[in-house]
Amino acid sequence: xxxxxxxxxxxxxxxxxxxxxxxxxxxxxxxxxxxxxxxxxxxxxxxxxxxxxxxxxxxxxxxxxxxxxxxxxxxxxxxxxxxxxxxxxxxxxxxxxxxxxxxxxxxxxxxxxxxxxxxxxxxxxxxxxxxxxxxxxxxxxxxxxxxxxxxxxxxxxxxxxxxxxxxxxxxxxxxxxxxxxxxxxx
Amino acid sequence: xxxxxxxxxxxxxxxxxxxxxxxxxxxxxxxxxxxxxxxxxxxxxxxxxxxxxxxxxxxxxxxxxxxxxxxxxxxxxxxxxxxxxxxxxxxxxxxxxxxxxxxxxxxxxxxxxxxxxxxxxxxxxxxxxxxxxxxxxxxxxxxxxxxxxxxxxxxxxxxxxxxxxxxxxxxxxxxxxxxxxxxxxxxxxxxxxxxxxxxxxxxxxxxxxxx
Lengths: 186, 211
What we know:
Chain A: Residues 30-97 form the RNA polymerase sigma-70 region domain. The complex is a heterodimer of chains A (186) and B (211). Chain A is mostly helical and 186 residues long. Chain A has helices at residues 3-17, 21-45, 53-67, 77-95, 106-114, 128-132, 138-147, 152-159, 163-184. In chain A, helix 3 packs across helix 9 and helix 7 (138-147) packs across helix 9 (163-184). The model of chain A has no long low-confidence stretch (mean pLDDT 83). Chain B has one domain. Helices cover 76% and strands 0% of the residues of chain B. The longest helix of chain B is centred in the last third of the chain and has 26 residues, at 183-208. At the A-B interface, helix 2, helix 3, helix 4, helix 6 and helix 7 of A face helix 1 of B.
């Protein structure tokens, strides 16, 4: 990946960690096409249907989200991101019964992060079934914010919960979703 | 759920709830407090502490175990962060190892061979083997709990380093009680006890630190 790209991502993520939701969303949106390019390449290489690629992208995004507390903002984000991607790739291959020693060279991932981003989201990808496995109110909150496009404040008002409670429930739901991605993506 | 929807969801959870650094700091605080309480109220400080601390053997015993703890913690923090190089920090751990080997060589050079057996076995090798793991238990649990927020490339290795950090901390406290000061004792019983804790850490890490 280019140094400029990595620096831009680092800056967005720094602001995100400072609590800037817009910067965080920009970061995730900017990273996603690159993750998609890697995921599709891996799916092709491992003979998986391309429709699985979007699940892989989402698995990586959730992992980036839950592990962003391990990024040291004084360092460039590129190597951090590449290592996260590799971890998910290795885990995926292991679960698919790759067995033995799994080689996903970090340099390959770093290189792929820099190639043409892939913007064409696969509309077939549908994690609806994952959301269905959450319990209310988590499911309701997740639906409201993701599919409904509502904010935390609106959702809290509608469910007669405090904003803090909605945020905590949302965070827990994301952890559950992360576990579900891992059990479902096979 | 489309990926854009997921991104909206993730962005709504802006606040970082699980930063690694503070978690490790809390684990260290808990570990140090528990070790201090065990030392003072359970096994007690050695009675001749004020004079003993000035002897090079005693100072070395405490210093080198504390160094292992500090270096292992520094390494652990790096291991927990993806993309941060760990080889240099890992190599630093060879320093206390080298120091122990040099201390052993000096001890062998400066003391009569007839006394080696006594220095090696000391008075309390059994207690050392029991108490270092006992002291290490809570620090290890605390460190592993903190490391569940981490993202180590190898969970087993991260667990082992967590075990080494806990063992170093435990040994650095137990050393204030332990009446056996010879480097021969240190290089044998402390190392066996620490290796055991490191092994337990590796086994636990393999299960607990997968992400």
